[in-house]
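Now read the record:
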Amino acid sequence: MSDIRYREFAEGDESSLLSLFYSSFGKPREPAQWRWEYFGGPVKSVIVVAECDGRLVGHYAILPRMMSHKGKSISAGLVVDVMTHPDYGRRGIFVGSALEAFRIAKKDGVSTLEGFPNEAAIKGHRKVGWTEAGAISVLVRPIRSKGLLKSVMGSISIPTAAERIMDVLLESLSGITLGEGRPRPDIEELTVEQTLNLGPHLERFIVESLPANAVSNQRDIAWLKWRLSEPNSAHHVFVVKKKDSEEISGLLVLKIKQYKKMKAGAIFDLLVKDEDVNVATLLIKEAIRKSRALGCDVCLMLRSPAQRWRSATMRTFMLPTPKRLRFIVRSVDGSPLPEEYNKGMRWHIQLIDHDVL
């Protein structure tokens, strides 16, 4: 085999990268989704490829974003889609691609890196100085017993009567009536366009709702416009406003996702002003209702080590699953991590702007 060369993404690499994605993960990547993720955002992405024998055999990408801690902005980057072609394993491509990506990210002003690696990738990340800051719980709220049981029990037939009894039980345990046609005096459902048109009201609410003592993603209208424009994705936004006012007190974004064996409503943003557990509970219940109305089997949510919304998720029968998402951090130049990322602190990523569920 020839020597491996590491370089930045260049025009004409797209088809080779999509082919590498299929070879590495065993599933296709839609071109529109790929272009949106890497080129549609407000900030340029760092994309490093490994080239050998006239083909692309490795990939390491960093999506820049701004974080916030105690009013201070932190230039960070989320590492995604790390891959090596199966025929080129054990040649140091993972480490070589990472180090080149770190060099470029530092030149672009990125100071801190974050990642959510799977079990296959964690060893490679440790080799280049990553620190495990903790794990994020995945919560699930069963909605329809049919799809849920089928995913667990495979082709075993479940009597219809038993399914109906379980559906009623799921509703009664959380006190959520999932029927249609009920009034919604406290919650307003918005389209993506209506959400973005909230402008200053939305941006002010976001700033005021972020906890000052934890690391959180910053959001502005430009970033939200990109994040909510994901191809082939249905986003539903729910807001709670104060009575007789345009002031927002709570916001939830729900994304509908289709997995191999079930359809899910994934809550990937939940913001509540003044840590209002009652508003958080109201919004989660609405997400569950919407998920059911759209034919979902479950509603999913992430909960960070900061344990926010514990009482709200208990009220709505959101149960922890065995799955945990590793959260890892690293300074881009290998220097000690900023204080806010120390393992002992109550950090959390309030909004994970990548599909880690």
